[in-house]
Amino acid sequence: MPRNGIWYFRMVINGKDRWKTTRTKDFDEAVKVRDFYLHETEKLAIEADKRKFKFLNLDRAIELRHLLKDTLDDNEKDAIVDQILDDGEDIAIKEEALAVFKGFEESNPLTRYLHDEYVKTALGHLTPLAPFKDKWLDTFQNKKTMLDYRRAFDVLTKQFQYAEDLDFQKAKTWLRKVQDQESVTPQTVKKWVSAYKNLWEFLQLEEKSPWKDQKLKANKENPRLCWKLSEVLFLLDEAKKKSNSKTWLFHLINIAAHTGARIAAIADMKDYKEDWNAIHFPAKKKEEMDRVVACHPNIKASVIWWMNKENYRPLNSKQMSRGFGNFKRGLGIKSEQLVFHSFRHTVIKYLKNIGCPVAMNAGIVGHKNKTFTTAVYGLGPMQAKATEKWIEQIDYNKEDWQEIDDRRQIDLDLEASVLEGQEGTT
User: Fold this and answer.
1) CA distance 31 to 17
2) CA-to-CA distance for 347 and 257, rounded, in angstroms?
3) What average pLDDT values come out for the chain (426 residues) when binned by 10 residues?
4) Beta-sheet strand order (sheet of 2-3)
5) Model-level pTM greater than 0.85?
C-alpha cells in the first residue's frame, strides 16, 4: 500500500498488525524489501522457538539423564530410554513434525533440532552449554570470580554450542588463538581454563574434560624486560614528586628495586629487624618458605616507613599494582613488557652481572624451591649477613645497560640439582 508515493507492507508482530515502510517508491524494490523483512522475521521466530525449547524441556531432559546414569538395573534403564524416546515423539507431534521424526522428508526446520536436542541431551550424548550458564554461575559466591567466569563462558560459547564439540586437540588449538582474538593476557586465559574445568565438573563430564593437562605456553612475543638503571632512577625521582596520598609509591618502588621482592611480599612485609639490619619477607606465590635479606642502606627509611601499615592502608597488592601501572603510563611508558614485576628481573640481572651465584640470587629475590640461603643459614641473622655482601653492591648510578639483550627477561634455573651444585658458595 503506497502512502505519499512510499510503499508500506503489513506484518503481524506479537499478534498485532504493524505497518512497515520500505522507504522506496519503486514497486519492484519495495517487494524485495518486504520479502527480506519476512525472511528475517521467520529466521528470528525459529531462533526464538529454539531458545524456548531449550528452557522448557531442559529440566525434564536433565532429570531423565541423571536418572539413567544413576540406575544400575538394566530393565529400569530400558524403561527410561523408552520414556525419553516417547518424550521426543511428543515434542515432534506438538510441532506437527511426526513424519520427520520417523525419518521422512523434512518439512519443519525445527523438527531435527527438537528431536536431536532433547533426546540426545536426555540420553547423555549431547550437552548444550548455554542453558546451564545461570545455574553454573549461581554456584559461585565470590562476585569477582562469578564475573570472570561469566566472561569465560561467553567467550567459549561464541564458538562452541555443545560440550561434545570439544576434544583435547580442539581445546588446545582454540586456547592458542583466543588470547589474540579477545586481546587478553596469558594469565586471563589460564584463569579461563580453571573456569572450564569447573564447568565440566558441574556438567558431570570431568572424565571427558578436554581441559585436563592443557599446558599454556608463555607469551614469548611479549616477555617481561628489565628496567634500565637510568629508568629506575627516573621512576624514583618522579614518584618523589607525588602528593602525600601517593607517598607509598616511592617507597614501594625503592624497596622493590633493591630487593627484587614481589609486590605481594612487599605489601605483606612481616618485619624489619634492626639488630640484623634485615627485612623479613613472607613466602608468596609458590615459594615454600619465608626469607630474611639484608636491608640496603638506600631503603632503610622506606622500610621503616612501610612497617607502619597505617601509612598506606587500605591499599592491597592488587591496588598497588594498578596504581603503579597508571603511574608509569602517565609518564609515557606504554610498554606491556615493562611492569612492576620488571624490578624483580632487574635485581636478578644486576646480581648476575656482578657475579652473584645463582643459588644466592634466588635466596635474595625468593623462589618456589627451598633456597640455598635458607637451607644453609636458616631464617635468621646469618642469612641476612650472607645476602648483605651482594645487596649492598646494587647501585643505580652506575653505567647503564646499553645492549637490548641486557633488558630481556631473566629466568633462574633453580632445579634441585643446580642448588645442590651451588652448596658452599656464598
Assistant:
1) 18
2) 7
3) 73 67 82 78 59 56 75 81 76 54 44 60 80 90 90 93 90 88 84 94 89 75 81 94 86 95 91 90 80 92 89 79 92 89 91 87 73 51 86 87 51 37 37
4) 2-3, 6-13, 16-21
5) no
